[in-house]
Amino acid sequence: MGSSLSVENRQHILISPNAIFSAGFLAIGDNAYSFAIWFTEPHFHSPTSVTWMANRDQPVNGKSSKLSLTNDGNMVLIDAALNTAWSSNTASSAPVELHLKDDGNLVLRRLQGTVLWQSFDFPTDTLVPARVTIPQVSISFSSMMTTFLVFITMVLMFQVPTGHNLG
Question: Which UniProt key words apply to this protein (predicted)?
Answer without folding.
Answer: Disulfide bond, Glycoprotein, Membrane, Signal, Transmembrane, Transmembrane helix
